[in-house]
Amino acid sequence: MIFQLRHKVLIAALVAVALVGIGCWQLAEWRTESIKTEPPAELPSVTAAGQLPEESEGSFYPHFRLQREKVRSQQLELLQEIINNPNTDDTSKQSAMNRLLTITNAMEMELKAEGLLKARGFKEGVVIIQDSVASVIVSGPALDEAEEEQIKSQVAGVLKMDSRQVSLINRE
After folding, report:
1. pLDDT at residue 30, as a whole number
2. How far is CA 34 from CA 53, 60, 63, in A?
3. Nearest to residue 62, comparing CAs of 137, 170, 166, 113?
4. Would the pLDDT of 171 be above 90?
5. Average pLDDT, whole number, for the chain?
6. Which residues pair with 130 in a beta bridge?
7. Contact indicator for 138, 125 with CB cutoff of 8 Å
8. Where in the chain are the domains?
């Protein structure tokens, strides 16, 4: 019985990893398909100036948020199944609860940081937290180095990170 339980937990963990991988793959595929200009060889989604290639401003941000939320929903659903499964051992339940808490905290901090970007006057902005780093994508004209550092510092404050852990991508 313990072997079966461990086997189920292992399968659940592998499914979670697969879901995250599929979500990242779908996002990367969408970004690659939607790029209208030829991407640089080294960084397919970012130009040499640190900006994303041109595409429909109205479609990028909503689609990106939708994909992010879809992947997160799948992760949360799987974690809830692990937590609610009566056959799951206490260690696995605690691990799933900790991961669930980490994901929901990241979602909350992303929303707060995106609100900060709107308050700063950006028409659109997306924040992605992954482990101990964050990526910020904003719309608008190119920023000078001082403006970029100020935004990174403010976002880092909201996310409770060092500004060196925040990268900023500007989409004109």
Report:
1. 47
2. 9, 9, 11
3. 137
4. no
5. 77
6. 133
7. yes
8. 2-171
Domain at 2-171, CATH class: mainly alpha
In order, the DSSP letters of 109-159 are HHHHHHHHHHHTT-S-EEEEEETTEEEEEEESSPPPHHHHHHHHHHHHHHH
The gap between the terminal CA atoms of the chain, to the nearest Å, is 58
Q: Between these two residues, 111 and 24, which has the higher pLDDT value?
A: 111
Locate 120 and state its tokens. Answer: 């700063």
> Which sign, positive or negative, has the C-alpha torsion 84, 75, 105, 130?
positive
Distance CA 7, CA 81 (A): 15
Q: In this structure, what token pair is assigned to residue 60?
A: 């990028």
Query: Where are the extended beta strands (E) located within the chain?
Result: 125-130, 133-139, 166-171
